[in-house]
Amino acid sequence: MCHVIVTCRSMLWTLLSIVVAFAELIAFMSADWLIGKAKPPSSEDGDNRTGGSQEPYHPTLGIYGRCTRISHMQLSRRDTLCGPYAENFSEIASGFWQATAIFLAMGIMILCTVAFVSVFTMCVQSIMKKSIFNVCGLLQGIAGLFLILGLILYPAGWGCQKARNYCGSYASAYKLGDCSLGWAFYTAIGGTVLTFICAVFSAQAEIATSSDKVQEEIEEGKNLICLL
After folding, report:
1. Which of 47, 144, 170, 228 yields a CA-CA distance of 20 to 30 A from 101?
2. The dihedral of CA 23, 27, 30, 32: what is its sign?
3. Region entry Disordered: which residue ranges (predicted)?
4. Which residue has the higher pLDDT, 195 or 127?
5. Whole domain around residue 172: which residue ranges?
6. Residue 69: which H helix or E strand, with range?
7. 170 falls within a domain
8. How many domains does the chain have?
9. Is residue 41, in this structure, part of any structural domain at all?
10. Structural contact between residues 166 and 179, judged by C-beta atoms closer than 8 angstroms
11. Does the pLDDT at position 160 exceed 70?
């Protein structure tokens, strides 16, 4: 018989697991890992004729994508164009970034799997006599290690030609040059920290769903058990 067990700790762990998976996925897909040096607007830009703003703009570069500004002279406006610069995996700008993409993708796949499974932990608490919370916590720890490896290797690729085009000739491995780090990099770091917090907190979720109070509710014949 399926018993639906909901506790504050198990629900919090589920929500954090989902948030972490989405945060890492969004960061990985974003082009805002590096913010390039400021580029002045083109002298041919339509704003010159209309008296518009002449503020410089900052192109951004991700692991496999980028954002830059294009001009529409006939329409006197400028748009920011974002998209992948690499049509396939081999065209990613650096071997280090290729390794980063692999490690991050593996970590994110595990996190998304755990996030999906975590939704069903309310009614399924064990798999083959193993606590599903402990299994998921172990997987989150492994995912966290993959994310750390990816984030460590990522700065080693700052010396590639693509990064130097955005960050200047002084950019090199672990040296940003004229670039600055974008929100996607910090989101990936924050998500990695939360991944390990989730891995540790999974033990608390397991304790909460197997407590004496829960067992008493089960013995009373209740199928829906909600505890603080």
Report:
1. 170
2. positive
3. 40-59
4. 195
5. 4-34+93-226
6. strand 65-72
7. yes
8. 1
9. no
10. yes
11. yes
What CATH number does residue 128 fall under? Answer: 1.20.140
Q: How far apart are CA 151 and CA 99, in angstroms?
A: 10
- In sequence order, what are the residues at sequence separation of 6 or more whose Cβ sits closer than 8 angstroms to the Cβ of residue 147? 24, 103, 104, 107, 188, 191, 192, 195
How far the first Cα of the chain sits from its last, in Å, is 23
> Is 120 exposed, middle or buried, given 0-12, 13-18 or 19+ CB atoms closer than 10 A?
exposed
In a domain, 43, yes or no: no
* Residue 21: inside a domain: yes
Q: Mind listing the pLDDT tens digit for each residue in 181-211? A: 999 999 999 999 999 999 999 998 888 777 6
Q: If residue 34 lies in a helix (H) or strand (E), which one and from where to where?
A: strand 34-35
Percentages helix, strand, coil for the chain, rounded to the nearest 5?
55, 15, 25
Structure pTM?
A: 0.84
